[in-house]
Amino acid sequence: MIQSLTAVGFRCFREIRVEPLTRVNLFVGENNAGKTSLLEAVELVAVGGVEGLTRSAMRRGEKILVKSENGERFKDHIVDLAHLFFGHDLRVGSFEIRGHDQPDRWVKCKVRTYDTETWPGEALFFESHITEQQNLGQNLTLSPQGGVIAPPSRSLQQPKAKVQFVAADSIDPAHLDQPWSDLVLTSGEDEVIRSLQVIEPNLERLAFVGDLGGSRVPLVRLKGFGQRLHLGSLGGGLRHFLALVLNLLSAREGFLLVDEIDTGLHYSVMVDMWRLLAESAKRLDVQVFATTHSLDCVRALARLRKKQPEIAAEITVHRVEKGAQRTIAYDADEIVVAADSHIEVR
Amino acid sequence: MVPPSEESPFRLLVEGTDDCHSVINLMKQLDFDWDDTTKRRPFIQRSGGIDKLLPAVSVTLKGTYERIGIIVDANSDPGARWLKLQHRAHQARSSCHPHQTPTERSSLVVVRGYGSASG
Fold first, then answer.
1. How many distinct structural domains can be found in chain B?
2. Which of A27, A42, A271, A306 is the most exposed place for a label (fewest CB within 10 A)?
3. Do A326 and B45 touch (CB under 8 A)?
Protein backbone atom coordinates (compact mmCIF):
# COMPACT_ATOMS: atom_id res chain seq x y z
CA MET A 1 0.00 0.00 0.00
CA ILE A 2 1.33 3.42 -0.94
CA GLN A 3 1.84 5.46 2.25
CA SER A 4 2.56 8.83 0.64
CA LEU A 5 3.13 10.26 -2.82
CA THR A 6 5.25 13.07 -4.22
CA ALA A 7 5.04 14.40 -7.77
CA VAL A 8 7.43 16.97 -9.23
CA GLY A 9 6.84 18.55 -12.64
CA PHE A 10 3.90 16.27 -13.40
CA ARG A 11 0.84 17.74 -15.20
CA CYS A 12 -0.40 20.77 -13.18
CA PHE A 13 1.96 20.16 -10.26
CA ARG A 14 5.24 22.00 -9.94
CA GLU A 15 5.59 19.96 -6.77
CA ILE A 16 3.05 18.22 -4.54
CA ARG A 17 3.12 15.85 -1.60
CA VAL A 18 0.17 13.75 -0.45
CA GLU A 19 0.25 12.08 2.95
CA PRO A 20 -0.84 10.08 4.78
CA LEU A 21 -2.39 7.74 2.24
CA THR A 22 -4.65 5.10 3.72
CA ARG A 23 -6.78 2.22 2.45
CA VAL A 24 -9.41 4.55 0.95
CA ASN A 25 -8.49 8.07 -0.15
CA LEU A 26 -10.87 10.74 -1.42
CA PHE A 27 -9.50 13.80 -3.23
CA VAL A 28 -11.62 16.97 -3.07
CA GLY A 29 -10.97 20.50 -4.31
CA GLU A 30 -11.91 23.09 -6.90
CA ASN A 31 -12.03 22.45 -10.63
CA ASN A 32 -8.54 22.23 -12.17
CA ALA A 33 -6.92 21.82 -8.76
CA GLY A 34 -5.40 18.54 -9.96
CA LYS A 35 -7.59 15.81 -8.42
CA THR A 36 -7.66 13.68 -11.57
CA SER A 37 -3.96 14.33 -12.14
CA LEU A 38 -3.26 12.87 -8.70
CA LEU A 39 -5.17 9.72 -9.68
CA GLU A 40 -3.00 9.58 -12.79
CA ALA A 41 0.18 10.02 -10.75
CA VAL A 42 -0.85 7.05 -8.61
CA GLU A 43 -1.70 5.09 -11.76
CA LEU A 44 1.73 5.80 -13.22
CA VAL A 45 3.66 4.53 -10.22
CA ALA A 46 1.25 1.61 -9.82
CA VAL A 47 1.39 0.37 -13.42
CA GLY A 48 4.89 1.48 -14.42
CA GLY A 49 6.50 0.94 -17.82
CA VAL A 50 5.44 2.45 -21.12
CA GLU A 51 1.89 1.34 -20.46
CA GLY A 52 1.73 3.39 -17.28
CA LEU A 53 3.27 6.33 -19.10
CA THR A 54 0.70 6.37 -21.90
CA ARG A 55 -2.49 5.25 -20.15
CA SER A 56 -3.77 8.64 -18.96
CA ALA A 57 -2.90 10.39 -22.21
CA MET A 58 -4.79 7.71 -24.17
CA ARG A 59 -7.80 7.99 -21.89
CA ARG A 60 -7.84 11.80 -22.14
CA GLY A 61 -7.53 11.63 -25.91
CA GLU A 62 -4.23 13.53 -25.89
CA LYS A 63 -3.11 12.66 -29.40
CA ILE A 64 -0.79 14.34 -31.83
CA LEU A 65 -2.39 16.74 -34.30
CA VAL A 66 -0.66 16.43 -37.68
CA LYS A 67 -0.98 19.01 -40.45
CA SER A 68 -1.29 17.84 -44.05
CA GLU A 69 -2.48 19.22 -47.36
CA ASN A 70 -6.00 18.09 -46.50
CA GLY A 71 -6.02 19.89 -43.16
CA GLU A 72 -5.27 18.83 -39.59
CA ARG A 73 -6.01 15.38 -38.18
CA PHE A 74 -5.20 13.41 -35.05
CA LYS A 75 -2.93 10.40 -35.28
CA ASP A 76 -4.76 7.75 -33.30
CA HIS A 77 -1.75 5.63 -32.39
CA ILE A 78 0.58 8.46 -31.39
CA VAL A 79 -0.01 10.00 -27.97
CA ASP A 80 1.12 13.47 -27.04
CA LEU A 81 2.99 13.07 -23.76
CA ALA A 82 3.79 16.78 -23.51
CA HIS A 83 0.73 17.21 -21.27
CA LEU A 84 2.31 14.95 -18.65
CA PHE A 85 4.92 17.67 -18.12
CA PHE A 86 4.33 20.80 -16.08
CA GLY A 87 3.61 23.63 -18.53
CA HIS A 88 2.65 21.13 -21.27
CA ASP A 89 6.16 21.23 -22.71
CA LEU A 90 8.25 18.07 -22.57
CA ARG A 91 11.33 19.81 -23.92
CA VAL A 92 11.77 22.21 -21.01
CA GLY A 93 11.55 19.89 -18.07
CA SER A 94 11.27 16.51 -16.51
CA PHE A 95 8.88 14.87 -14.11
CA GLU A 96 9.29 12.48 -11.26
CA ILE A 97 6.71 10.64 -9.18
CA ARG A 98 7.50 8.70 -6.02
CA GLY A 99 5.16 6.48 -4.10
CA HIS A 100 6.41 5.52 -0.67
CA ASP A 101 5.61 1.84 -0.42
CA GLN A 102 7.46 -1.32 0.56
CA PRO A 103 9.60 -1.12 -1.53
CA ASP A 104 9.30 2.44 -2.88
CA ARG A 105 7.94 2.97 -6.38
CA TRP A 106 9.19 5.72 -8.63
CA VAL A 107 9.00 6.96 -12.21
CA LYS A 108 11.26 9.54 -13.87
CA CYS A 109 10.91 10.95 -17.36
CA LYS A 110 12.67 13.62 -19.41
CA VAL A 111 13.74 14.39 -22.98
CA ARG A 112 17.35 13.75 -23.88
CA THR A 113 19.16 14.75 -27.03
CA TYR A 114 21.58 12.23 -28.53
CA ASP A 115 24.14 12.65 -31.24
CA THR A 116 25.10 9.09 -32.08
CA GLU A 117 24.74 6.94 -35.16
CA THR A 118 22.34 4.59 -33.42
CA TRP A 119 20.22 7.36 -31.93
CA PRO A 120 20.48 10.73 -33.64
CA GLY A 121 18.19 13.34 -32.18
CA GLU A 122 15.73 13.46 -29.32
CA ALA A 123 14.26 10.68 -27.24
CA LEU A 124 12.05 10.46 -24.21
CA PHE A 125 14.24 8.92 -21.53
CA PHE A 126 12.16 6.97 -19.08
CA GLU A 127 13.04 5.09 -15.88
CA SER A 128 10.74 3.33 -13.47
CA HIS A 129 11.07 1.20 -10.38
CA ILE A 130 7.88 -0.63 -9.54
CA THR A 131 7.49 -3.50 -7.09
CA GLU A 132 7.29 -6.24 -9.68
CA GLN A 133 9.37 -4.68 -12.42
CA GLN A 134 12.38 -2.45 -12.91
CA ASN A 135 13.09 -0.33 -15.93
CA LEU A 136 16.49 1.24 -15.44
CA GLY A 137 16.46 3.48 -18.45
CA GLN A 138 14.60 3.25 -21.73
CA ASN A 139 14.58 5.60 -24.70
CA LEU A 140 11.27 6.08 -26.47
CA THR A 141 11.33 7.41 -30.01
CA LEU A 142 9.73 10.82 -30.34
CA SER A 143 7.81 11.71 -33.48
CA PRO A 144 8.70 15.08 -35.11
CA GLN A 145 5.70 16.55 -33.29
CA GLY A 146 6.86 15.12 -29.94
CA GLY A 147 4.55 12.13 -29.74
CA VAL A 148 5.17 8.56 -28.65
CA ILE A 149 3.69 5.45 -30.23
CA ALA A 150 1.14 3.97 -27.84
CA PRO A 151 1.21 0.28 -26.92
CA PRO A 152 -1.55 -1.87 -28.48
CA SER A 153 -4.96 -1.11 -27.03
CA ARG A 154 -5.42 -4.75 -25.97
CA SER A 155 -2.71 -4.35 -23.36
CA LEU A 156 -4.48 -1.27 -22.04
CA GLN A 157 -7.71 -3.18 -21.56
CA GLN A 158 -6.09 -6.13 -19.83
CA PRO A 159 -3.14 -4.76 -17.89
CA LYS A 160 -0.83 -7.13 -16.06
CA ALA A 161 -0.84 -4.88 -13.03
CA LYS A 162 -4.13 -4.85 -11.18
CA VAL A 163 -4.74 -1.15 -11.55
CA GLN A 164 -8.28 -0.27 -12.52
CA PHE A 165 -9.31 3.26 -13.51
CA VAL A 166 -12.99 4.20 -13.62
CA ALA A 167 -13.32 7.44 -15.57
CA ALA A 168 -16.23 9.79 -14.95
CA ASP A 169 -17.46 10.16 -18.49
CA SER A 170 -16.37 7.18 -20.50
CA ILE A 171 -17.90 4.03 -19.07
CA ASP A 172 -18.66 1.89 -22.09
CA PRO A 173 -20.86 -1.03 -20.98
CA ALA A 174 -19.11 -3.24 -23.53
CA HIS A 175 -15.86 -2.82 -21.56
CA LEU A 176 -17.57 -4.32 -18.51
CA ASP A 177 -18.20 -7.60 -20.33
CA GLN A 178 -14.75 -9.07 -19.70
CA PRO A 179 -14.55 -8.40 -15.94
CA TRP A 180 -18.12 -9.71 -15.61
CA SER A 181 -17.26 -12.87 -17.56
CA ASP A 182 -14.38 -13.47 -15.15
CA LEU A 183 -16.88 -13.58 -12.28
CA VAL A 184 -19.73 -15.58 -13.83
CA LEU A 185 -20.56 -18.78 -11.87
CA THR A 186 -18.30 -17.69 -8.99
CA SER A 187 -19.23 -16.14 -5.66
CA GLY A 188 -18.20 -12.85 -7.24
CA GLU A 189 -21.32 -12.95 -9.43
CA ASP A 190 -23.57 -12.98 -6.36
CA GLU A 191 -21.48 -10.23 -4.80
CA VAL A 192 -22.00 -7.98 -7.83
CA ILE A 193 -25.76 -8.57 -7.80
CA ARG A 194 -25.96 -7.85 -4.05
CA SER A 195 -23.97 -4.66 -4.61
CA LEU A 196 -26.20 -3.48 -7.46
CA GLN A 197 -29.23 -4.00 -5.22
CA VAL A 198 -27.99 -0.99 -3.22
CA ILE A 199 -29.11 1.08 -6.23
CA GLU A 200 -31.93 -1.11 -7.56
CA PRO A 201 -33.35 -3.43 -4.88
CA ASN A 202 -35.46 -5.33 -7.44
CA LEU A 203 -32.52 -6.36 -9.60
CA GLU A 204 -32.23 -10.17 -9.70
CA ARG A 205 -29.91 -11.07 -12.55
CA LEU A 206 -27.38 -9.54 -14.92
CA ALA A 207 -26.09 -11.00 -18.19
CA PHE A 208 -24.13 -9.81 -21.20
CA VAL A 209 -25.89 -10.96 -24.36
CA GLY A 210 -24.29 -11.01 -27.81
CA ASP A 211 -25.91 -10.16 -31.12
CA LEU A 212 -25.06 -11.33 -34.65
CA GLY A 213 -22.77 -8.34 -35.08
CA GLY A 214 -20.57 -9.58 -32.26
CA SER A 215 -21.30 -6.81 -29.76
CA ARG A 216 -22.45 -7.76 -26.27
CA VAL A 217 -24.77 -5.63 -24.20
CA PRO A 218 -25.67 -5.88 -20.48
CA LEU A 219 -29.26 -6.93 -19.76
CA VAL A 220 -30.93 -7.23 -16.36
CA ARG A 221 -33.99 -8.91 -14.89
CA LEU A 222 -36.06 -7.19 -12.23
CA LYS A 223 -38.24 -8.93 -9.65
CA GLY A 224 -41.87 -9.04 -10.77
CA PHE A 225 -41.09 -7.79 -14.26
CA GLY A 226 -41.41 -10.25 -17.11
CA GLN A 227 -39.20 -8.58 -19.68
CA ARG A 228 -35.44 -8.38 -19.61
CA LEU A 229 -34.21 -4.79 -19.67
CA HIS A 230 -31.15 -3.04 -21.04
CA LEU A 231 -28.93 -1.93 -18.14
CA GLY A 232 -28.71 1.54 -19.67
CA SER A 233 -32.48 1.96 -19.41
CA LEU A 234 -32.21 1.91 -15.60
CA GLY A 235 -30.09 5.06 -15.45
CA GLY A 236 -26.46 6.11 -15.47
CA GLY A 237 -26.04 5.58 -11.73
CA LEU A 238 -26.51 1.82 -11.99
CA ARG A 239 -24.04 1.58 -14.87
CA HIS A 240 -21.49 3.62 -12.91
CA PHE A 241 -22.02 1.44 -9.84
CA LEU A 242 -21.57 -1.72 -11.92
CA ALA A 243 -18.30 -0.31 -13.26
CA LEU A 244 -17.22 0.51 -9.72
CA VAL A 245 -17.97 -2.95 -8.35
CA LEU A 246 -16.50 -4.91 -11.27
CA ASN A 247 -13.31 -2.86 -11.27
CA LEU A 248 -13.01 -3.22 -7.50
CA LEU A 249 -13.27 -7.00 -7.72
CA SER A 250 -10.76 -7.02 -10.61
CA ALA A 251 -8.25 -4.97 -8.63
CA ARG A 252 -7.55 -7.60 -5.95
CA GLU A 253 -4.18 -6.82 -4.29
CA GLY A 254 -3.90 -3.76 -6.50
CA PHE A 255 -5.34 -0.31 -6.94
CA LEU A 256 -8.75 1.13 -7.79
CA LEU A 257 -8.86 4.69 -9.13
CA VAL A 258 -12.25 6.34 -9.54
CA ASP A 259 -12.81 9.78 -11.02
CA GLU A 260 -15.94 11.51 -9.70
CA ILE A 261 -17.09 8.57 -7.64
CA ASP A 262 -20.52 10.06 -6.97
CA THR A 263 -21.48 10.21 -10.67
CA GLY A 264 -25.18 9.52 -11.07
CA LEU A 265 -25.64 8.46 -7.44
CA HIS A 266 -28.35 9.83 -5.14
CA TYR A 267 -27.11 10.98 -1.73
CA SER A 268 -29.20 8.32 0.02
CA VAL A 269 -27.08 5.45 -1.36
CA MET A 270 -23.70 6.99 -0.64
CA VAL A 271 -23.26 5.54 2.85
CA ASP A 272 -23.89 2.07 1.41
CA MET A 273 -21.47 2.79 -1.42
CA TRP A 274 -18.69 3.75 1.01
CA ARG A 275 -19.46 0.75 3.23
CA LEU A 276 -19.23 -1.59 0.26
CA LEU A 277 -16.06 0.04 -1.00
CA ALA A 278 -14.27 0.17 2.36
CA GLU A 279 -15.23 -3.38 3.36
CA SER A 280 -14.33 -4.90 0.01
CA ALA A 281 -11.11 -2.90 -0.32
CA LYS A 282 -9.88 -4.28 3.01
CA ARG A 283 -10.96 -7.84 2.23
CA LEU A 284 -9.43 -7.81 -1.27
CA ASP A 285 -6.34 -5.80 -0.25
CA VAL A 286 -7.13 -3.02 -2.71
CA GLN A 287 -6.03 0.58 -2.16
CA VAL A 288 -8.70 2.99 -3.38
CA PHE A 289 -8.26 6.54 -4.67
CA ALA A 290 -11.27 8.59 -5.74
CA THR A 291 -12.29 12.17 -6.49
CA THR A 292 -15.50 14.08 -5.87
CA HIS A 293 -17.02 17.55 -5.81
CA SER A 294 -19.99 16.36 -3.80
CA LEU A 295 -20.53 17.44 -0.20
CA ASP A 296 -23.06 14.60 0.16
CA CYS A 297 -20.31 12.18 -0.76
CA VAL A 298 -17.99 13.54 1.96
CA ARG A 299 -20.74 13.69 4.58
CA ALA A 300 -21.69 10.10 3.81
CA LEU A 301 -18.20 9.16 5.05
CA ALA A 302 -18.98 10.90 8.34
CA ARG A 303 -22.25 9.01 8.66
CA LEU A 304 -20.49 5.70 7.99
CA ARG A 305 -17.83 6.53 10.60
CA LYS A 306 -20.58 7.15 13.16
CA LYS A 307 -22.58 4.04 12.27
CA GLN A 308 -19.72 1.59 11.76
CA PRO A 309 -16.51 3.22 13.00
CA GLU A 310 -14.26 0.24 12.31
CA ILE A 311 -15.18 0.14 8.62
CA ALA A 312 -14.48 3.84 8.08
CA ALA A 313 -11.28 3.89 10.13
CA GLU A 314 -8.97 3.72 7.13
CA ILE A 315 -10.55 6.51 5.10
CA THR A 316 -8.86 9.88 4.51
CA VAL A 317 -10.10 12.97 2.68
CA HIS A 318 -7.41 15.08 0.98
CA ARG A 319 -8.13 18.62 -0.21
CA VAL A 320 -6.10 19.54 -3.29
CA GLU A 321 -5.45 23.28 -3.68
CA LYS A 322 -4.17 24.96 -6.83
CA GLY A 323 -0.45 25.66 -6.58
CA ALA A 324 -0.11 24.19 -3.08
CA GLN A 325 2.81 21.91 -2.32
CA ARG A 326 0.85 19.69 0.05
CA THR A 327 -2.67 18.42 0.22
CA ILE A 328 -4.62 18.95 3.44
CA ALA A 329 -5.62 15.62 4.98
CA TYR A 330 -8.63 14.92 7.20
CA ASP A 331 -8.79 11.60 9.02
CA ALA A 332 -12.04 9.77 9.70
CA ASP A 333 -12.66 11.52 13.04
CA GLU A 334 -11.96 14.95 11.56
CA ILE A 335 -14.45 14.20 8.77
CA VAL A 336 -17.08 13.60 11.47
CA VAL A 337 -16.18 16.86 13.26
CA ALA A 338 -16.38 18.73 9.95
CA ALA A 339 -19.81 17.27 9.18
CA ASP A 340 -21.17 17.95 12.68
CA SER A 341 -19.83 21.50 12.76
CA HIS A 342 -20.74 22.31 9.14
CA ILE A 343 -17.09 22.95 8.33
CA GLU A 344 -16.21 23.04 4.62
CA VAL A 345 -13.41 20.63 3.75
CA ARG A 346 -13.69 20.70 -0.06
CA MET B 1 -32.59 38.45 10.77
CA VAL B 2 -31.49 36.20 7.93
CA PRO B 3 -28.69 34.17 9.50
CA PRO B 4 -25.27 34.23 7.83
CA SER B 5 -24.66 31.37 5.43
CA GLU B 6 -22.56 28.34 6.32
CA GLU B 7 -20.63 29.20 3.18
CA SER B 8 -19.44 32.54 4.61
CA PRO B 9 -15.63 32.92 4.37
CA PHE B 10 -15.73 34.28 7.92
CA ARG B 11 -16.35 31.84 10.73
CA LEU B 12 -16.70 32.28 14.47
CA LEU B 13 -16.52 29.35 16.86
CA VAL B 14 -18.28 29.75 20.18
CA GLU B 15 -19.15 27.33 22.96
CA GLY B 16 -22.92 27.84 23.19
CA THR B 17 -26.04 29.82 22.41
CA ASP B 18 -25.34 32.46 25.09
CA ASP B 19 -21.99 33.25 23.52
CA CYS B 20 -23.64 33.52 20.13
CA HIS B 21 -26.18 36.08 21.38
CA SER B 22 -23.47 37.97 23.30
CA VAL B 23 -21.38 38.37 20.18
CA ILE B 24 -24.27 39.47 18.01
CA ASN B 25 -25.40 42.05 20.60
CA LEU B 26 -21.86 43.29 21.15
CA MET B 27 -21.34 43.77 17.43
CA LYS B 28 -24.69 45.55 17.14
CA GLN B 29 -23.52 47.92 19.90
CA LEU B 30 -20.50 48.60 17.71
CA ASP B 31 -22.83 49.51 14.79
CA PHE B 32 -22.35 46.26 12.87
CA ASP B 33 -25.59 45.74 10.98
CA TRP B 34 -26.45 42.04 11.27
CA ASP B 35 -29.51 42.49 9.10
CA ASP B 36 -27.47 43.74 6.13
CA THR B 37 -27.17 40.57 4.05
CA THR B 38 -24.83 42.31 1.60
CA LYS B 39 -22.18 42.42 4.34
CA ARG B 40 -19.77 39.57 4.88
CA ARG B 41 -21.10 38.28 8.17
CA PRO B 42 -19.43 35.44 10.05
CA PHE B 43 -21.22 32.15 10.31
CA ILE B 44 -21.34 31.49 14.05
CA GLN B 45 -20.81 27.83 14.90
CA ARG B 46 -22.20 26.87 18.31
CA SER B 47 -20.19 23.88 19.36
CA GLY B 48 -22.07 22.78 22.48
CA GLY B 49 -19.24 23.10 24.99
CA ILE B 50 -15.49 23.30 25.11
CA ASP B 51 -15.02 19.55 24.57
CA LYS B 52 -16.71 19.79 21.19
CA LEU B 53 -15.22 23.16 20.32
CA LEU B 54 -11.60 22.06 20.67
CA PRO B 55 -11.66 19.34 17.95
CA ALA B 56 -13.50 21.79 15.67
CA VAL B 57 -10.66 24.31 16.07
CA SER B 58 -8.03 22.29 14.23
CA VAL B 59 -10.47 21.15 11.54
CA THR B 60 -11.66 24.74 10.98
CA LEU B 61 -8.09 26.03 10.80
CA LYS B 62 -7.34 23.45 8.08
CA GLY B 63 -10.24 24.80 6.01
CA THR B 64 -10.23 27.57 3.45
CA TYR B 65 -11.82 30.28 5.57
CA GLU B 66 -10.47 33.81 5.21
CA ARG B 67 -11.07 34.81 8.82
CA ILE B 68 -11.62 32.67 11.88
CA GLY B 69 -12.59 33.77 15.36
CA ILE B 70 -12.73 31.59 18.45
CA ILE B 71 -14.37 32.54 21.73
CA VAL B 72 -14.04 30.32 24.78
CA ASP B 73 -15.09 30.81 28.39
CA ALA B 74 -12.50 31.45 31.05
CA ASN B 75 -14.61 29.94 33.82
CA SER B 76 -12.19 27.21 34.83
CA ASP B 77 -8.41 27.18 34.54
CA PRO B 78 -8.09 29.56 31.58
CA GLY B 79 -4.36 28.88 31.31
CA ALA B 80 -5.02 25.21 30.60
CA ARG B 81 -7.66 26.11 28.02
CA TRP B 82 -5.25 28.44 26.33
CA LEU B 83 -2.69 25.64 26.10
CA LYS B 84 -5.29 23.28 24.64
CA LEU B 85 -6.18 25.84 21.99
CA GLN B 86 -2.51 26.32 21.18
CA HIS B 87 -2.15 22.55 20.81
CA ARG B 88 -5.08 22.39 18.36
CA ALA B 89 -3.67 25.28 16.36
CA HIS B 90 -0.31 23.53 16.23
CA GLN B 91 -2.00 20.33 15.01
CA ALA B 92 -3.59 22.21 12.13
CA ARG B 93 -0.40 24.06 11.29
CA SER B 94 1.69 20.89 11.16
CA SER B 95 -0.61 19.42 8.53
CA CYS B 96 -0.31 22.44 6.24
CA HIS B 97 2.54 23.61 4.05
CA PRO B 98 4.33 26.75 5.31
CA HIS B 99 2.70 28.71 2.47
CA GLN B 100 -0.72 27.63 3.66
CA THR B 101 -0.33 28.08 7.40
CA PRO B 102 -3.37 29.28 9.22
CA THR B 103 -1.38 32.21 10.59
CA GLU B 104 -1.48 33.72 7.10
CA ARG B 105 -5.13 34.36 7.66
CA SER B 106 -6.63 36.70 10.20
CA SER B 107 -7.52 34.78 13.30
CA LEU B 108 -8.54 36.00 16.72
CA VAL B 109 -8.89 34.00 19.88
CA VAL B 110 -10.68 35.42 22.87
CA VAL B 111 -10.83 33.70 26.22
CA ARG B 112 -13.68 35.50 27.89
CA GLY B 113 -12.59 37.25 31.05
CA TYR B 114 -8.96 36.28 30.48
CA GLY B 115 -7.44 38.02 27.49
CA SER B 116 -7.09 37.76 23.75
CA ALA B 117 -4.52 37.08 21.09
CA SER B 118 -4.50 37.44 17.36
CA GLY B 119 -2.36 36.11 14.57
1. 1
2. A306
3. no
